[in-house]
Predict the structure of S-adenosyl-L-methionine-dependent methyltransferase.
Amino acid sequence: MSDSQLHSHPEAQSEEKVGREEKEEKRGEGTYALVSDEPERARLDSQHERVKALFDGSLLPAGLQLQSGDRVLDAGTGTGNWALDVARSLPPSSGVSIDSMDITDRLFPASPPPNVHFSTGNILALPPSGTYTLVHQRFLTAAFSAADWRACLARLYDALKPGGWLRMEEMRAFIQPATLPHAGEFLAFGALLEGVTGINFRAVDNIEQWVREAGFADVQVDVRRWPLGPGEEGKENREGVMQGWGAVRRAMSAAGNDLGMSDARWAQFMSDAAGDLEAHESWLTVHAFTARKPVAGDA
Ligand SMILES: C[S@@+](CC[C@H](N)C(=O)[O-])C[C@H]1O[C@@H](n2cnc3c(N)ncnc32)[C@H](O)[C@@H]1O
């Protein structure tokens, strides 16, 4: 990607601004950079297994034992892979009810178990029910601006009952290290996408602070390195990352925006990225955040 594609001339900048403003208007209904289609279903389900393994197989916050009557919310559930896995891990008559919510029902499973309830809804408009023992949310990095993140955390806080738990996993969306041969292009692609969509791909660096500002206590952060290369190391992870970029490309194309990259240029970009990751030590980081809503009288 050339500099001129990034620092475009005034007309293009003004078009980008209009695009951003249109996106901002739509933001109340949610904005998400990836398409929700069948390849994406497969990618998310495979990713679930690898993220679970990255965190030693744990699905729930350490110290939380779900009990009969507890309600759990999986916000931005996608295919519901996390919620279905939690349901499978509980005894058949556990009495735990799981709400799986997403802005679209496109990836919902056909026949979920009776204690997992799928519904469409926007996290940013979640009702302040104060009923959930646990709210889980994973990988909304490609959906929210900084303002959205603050609103999201306020909504999740209000959905929890006092003493309830928040568990989130988010990714640092930028591939490391910065010394990869095409690192400048990866950064430029992220910046271009941020400019067009208003999404903040660097949010993970601020989430701990925003969680605290939302009123949560006992905030803990567990950062794990997710290898992408070289060679066989991280092969599935890097294929997943590349497929995720493909899902961004399909979403943007469906919206009539090729991000200034022809199909040939895109294919070259993807090939350069695959070559870098396969040949060099490279990684992403996944950040798990655990926190609790204080009970009245807590400091
Ligand atoms: C990267 S996927 C992650 C799905 C799932 N949490 C997982 O880890 O497999 C992000 C999901 O968030 C959903 N989403 C995006 N914006 C949303 C919003 N404002 N409210 C609810 N869901 C949203 C998308 O439709 C998508 O299914």
Q: What stands out?
A: Residues 235-254 form the longest helix (20 residues). The two ends are 51 Å apart (CA to CA). The beta strands are 71-75, 97-102, 116-120, 132-138, 160-176, 217-229, 282-292.
